[in-house]
Amino acid sequence: MAKITLSKLRHSYYPNPKSPSDYALKEIDLDWKDGGAYALLGPSGCGKSTLLNIISGLLIPSEGRILFDGDDVTELTPDKRNIAQVFQFPVIYDTMTVYDNLAFPLRNRGRSEDVVHQRVTEIAEMLEISDMLQTRAASLSPDNKQKISMGRGLVREDVNVVMFDEPLTVIDPHLKWKLRSKLKELHQRVNATMIYVTHDQTEALTFADQVVVMQAGEVVQIGTPVELFERPAHTFVGHFIGSPGMNVLPCELRNGAAYFGDTAIPLEGAITGSPSGKTEIGVRPEFVSIAAQGLPAKVTKVSDVGKHIVVECQANGQRISAVTHGSAPEKGADVFLNFQQDQTRLYVDGWLATQIQEAAV
Amino acid sequence: MKTVNHKGWFFVLPVLLLVAFNALIPMMTVVNYSVQETFGNNQFFWQGLDWFEQILRSDRFHAALGRQFLFTFLILIIEIPLGIAIALSMPRKGFWVPVCLVTMALPMLIPWNVVGAMWNIFTLPDIGLLGYFLNHTLGINYDMTQDPLAAWITIITMDVWHWTSLVVLLSYAGLVSIPDAYYQAAKIDGASNWSVFRHIQLPKMKTVLTIAILLRFMDSFNIYTEPFVLTGGGPGNSTTLLSIDLVKIALGQFDLGPAAAMSLIYFAITLLVSWLFYTLMTKDDLN
Question: Which of A166, A227, B32, B134 has CB 3.0 to 4.6 Å from B142, enough for a Cys bridge?
Fold first, then answer.
């Protein structure tokens, strides 16, 4: 167990990186608290696997340091860092039984057979694979193989961190849900720091207490699932999390007020700094309502997704989604849209640029 | 109910005909010779299983068969571990990969009788590069036309030189198909190099190794051209392997009946050993 600190971390796969675009990771400073459940969320190619491999020691960063409880481990090999990692595809030792697979990391570290037996039985019981201990691992189904990979990660009692690199990719959808809740439960039982890498927002939001959102080698926002949903720090987070994603509308600033077309849009609070650059209004579909007056728009599409109805509208040439419950206007109807003020924010060059109005809350 | 459609047989027919013309019919003529005696003039006399009995009881056949098994055994225990070792030490990516692969493939591209001739000249005591070096520089008496041991060392070395590449290339193909995650997981699990070999590389290479061993067994058990060109079966009979002996009986002595019987026995042994080996190697995969 340890607190993990990433300090001024940069990495490039090129030997002599020149421009910032040569870097797979651009200057990351991050603290992972001991015992936390973290998710590393981002689209494919955003650098999240690179970051994970740097923490596990499979990759040495070009610049910066990694500290475990204050000790520099930047140059240490994976086995010396005392970490565990579960990969995208299940890694099992084909010729061994399930028991031997689980025992492998302990035996390699010279633990006595008593300790091995006790730990393996305990982990097998947690993962509900006790009845398979004597079968050959090669003959198992993918989800059971992945359980064994996870088991090998959890079997050592003293690991600093357990990392999961998109572990549910090859698992059937109905088993995904089961394994995910299993993982959550395991985190509570073993109390180890866990980092879960994924590009699936549902996986990230259900697993983690803290979600780290990455894009193009940068950390865009760190926060609880609720924070990410309600106050995205960047339009990317707004797009990436939520379904449908946040409405991002180009706007103009006149006398400190934001105008979308000719309509003034009231924002949640004061604009920070003196904005220059591309200004946009961000509001989640969940906080857009169809009202008697407001922004005039035309309904272009209505889709009933079960628990709510998504109404897509067109206003000033921009698409705006609204989520409604119960009745919805028909396609082609002229409506007025209303944005809930405390959930309407201004973004400058993609970054959040309004403050919460304390009085309004 | 399942409908039975016999039209499917027509699709198999071309293959059946092909196999009949290139294998079954030629083999039947051998069967035909093996149970008859002929003195030419297309006259045949029924002989029953006499030739088979004669061959199976003959010391000459036993000796040739023994030499054949010894040869195959020796080249297998050298080529398989050596091939794996070379494959393991070859680079997995980068500039040197194609260089290594082409270098490895070169010996296999040389015609078999050329290989025999090359090694013959190479090891000649007075003019051969190796032969001259051994005899005149190091002072070791090395002459494969005189010394059976030297002849054996030469044919084994020649086969290792010619065919280890096959094992290397097959093993290498098996090795590069192992995803990086396996090595990474093993590193994290604290596995030693030996454990990585024993529990990851060897199991993943098993299928290609089975094929490699099977191919090397069949090829070496049926080897003819290279040792024939190199030693001609000598000195004496010391390197007369089964196929060389067979040709001596068939074409040298023109004993077509015994030669045919010997061919069939030879074929049966090859088939039996291959089948046994394949069954043993793959029996784990079935369950």
Answer: B134
Please indicate if any CB of chain B lies within 8 Å of the CB of A146: no
For chain A, domains (ranges, CATH) are 4-230 (3.40.50.300), 244-360 (2.40.50.140)
Round the average pLDDT of chain B to a whole number and report it.
87
Report the C-alpha dihedral over residues B220, B226, B228, B230, rounded to 10 degrees.
-130
Percent of residues, chain B, with pLDDT higher than 70 = 98
Dihedral class, residue A197 (left if φ above 0, else alpha if ψ from -120 to 50, else beta) = beta
Our measurement of the distance from residue A221's CA atom to the centroid of its chain's CA atoms, rounded to an integer in Å, reads 10
On whether any CB of chain B is under 8 Å from the CB of A101, the answer is no
Q: Do A152 and B185 touch (CB under 8 A)?
A: yes
Q: Contact, A37 vs A194, CB < 8 A?
A: yes
Tens digit of each residue's pLDDT (9 = 90 or more) over A252-265: 887 777 888 778 78
Task: Supply the ipTM of this predicted assembly.
Answer: 0.74
The domain B52-286 having CATH identifier 1.25.40.20: the answer here is no
Amino acid identity, residue A281?
Answer: I
**Per-residue pLDDT tens digits for B93-116:** 888 999 999 999 999 999 988 998
- State pTM to two decimals: 0.75
d(CA A53, CA A49): 6
